[in-house]
Specification:
This protein is of the alpha+beta class. Among the domains are: about 90 residues, no CATH class; about 60 residues, Head domain of nucleotide exchange factor GrpE (Nucleotide Exchange Factor Grpe, Chain A, domain 2, Roll). The protein contains three helices and six strands. It is rod-shaped, with a radius of gyration of 51 Å. The termini are far apart.
Length: about 240
């Protein structure tokens, strides 16, 4: 038998005990009791209709008391359910707060791991290789400039001009390789930015507003994911 059935039997036994006690209080000489007097209808002077009236009154009294007890039990159960729901709601709120904190910690840890991974890949694996590619780019550009000068002397249809064109295509391919490693050239700028430029020579400026103006890009600079790989070497103007 379940706990619920046992509790219902106990409640019913208590109700019947109370009703039995109230029934014992009913006696012919007790006029102060709220329940009507019940007599044997065969007694002399006892009318049948009076007996049924008293019986009906006792029935109403019993029903009223049962309704009161049922209402009290229902109110008690409602309060117990309300308290249980309140505790469940508090537990859910606590779980939601805990999950929010855990999610923030996870996001922070994930960001740190990504940063560590990127730094490790760059410093340990990519950086040496990228620097080698940048140096190769410099050498090929130097050779390209030499061939360009020679091609101008020999003419556009000379073999030197063909070598120059082939070398130019190789340089473009090398730049594409750098791009696949997230390495980009520093965008051309009109004025010197110490965060990206290294001035290797100056030319005199005629006006103060020309100070810091870039005259020539001598050697290209590169960045990897917004980190400087090699500053751009330039010639700039300087006033005074």
């Amino acid at each position: 038998m379940s706990n619920k059935s046992t509790q219902q039997e106990q409640d019913f036994a208590i109700v019947m005990q109370k009703l039995s006690a109230e029934a014992e209080k009913i006696s012919p000489g007790d006029q102060s009791n709220s329940l009507p007097e019940v007599r044997d209808p065969t007694e002399p002077g006892q009318q049948p209709h009076a007996f049924f009236e008293r019986l009906h009154g006792l029935e109403n009294s019993v029903l009223n008391r049962l309704e009161q007890i049922a209402a009290q039990m229902e109110a008690s159960r409602a309060a117990a359910f309300a308290e249980q729901f309140r505790r469940i709601d508090e537990q859910l709120a606590s779980i939601r707060n805990t999950e929010s904190v855990n999610q923030q910690l996870f996001d922070s840890l994930h960001a740190e791991l990504l940063k560590y991974r990127d730094n490790f890949l760059h410093e340990s694996l990519q950086k040496p290789f990228i620097h080698d590619l940048v140096y190769l780019y410099d050498h090929l550009n130097g050779l390209y400039e030499q061939l360009s000068t020679a091609a101008q002397e020999k003419g556009k249809r000379s073999r030197v001009a063909q070598w120059r064109d082939n070398l130019e295509n190789a340089i473009h391919s090398l730049v594409e390789i750098l791009h696949r490693f997230d390495v980009k050239e520093i965008e051309p700028r009109e004025r010197v930015d110490r965060a990206f430029h290294r001035v290797i020579n100056y030319e005199p400026a005629d006006f103060p507003e020309e100070d810091g103006t870039i005259v020539m890009r001598v050697k290209r600079g590169f960045v990897w994911r917004e980190k400087l790989i090699r500053p751009e070497e330039v010639i700039a103007k300087r006033f005074g």
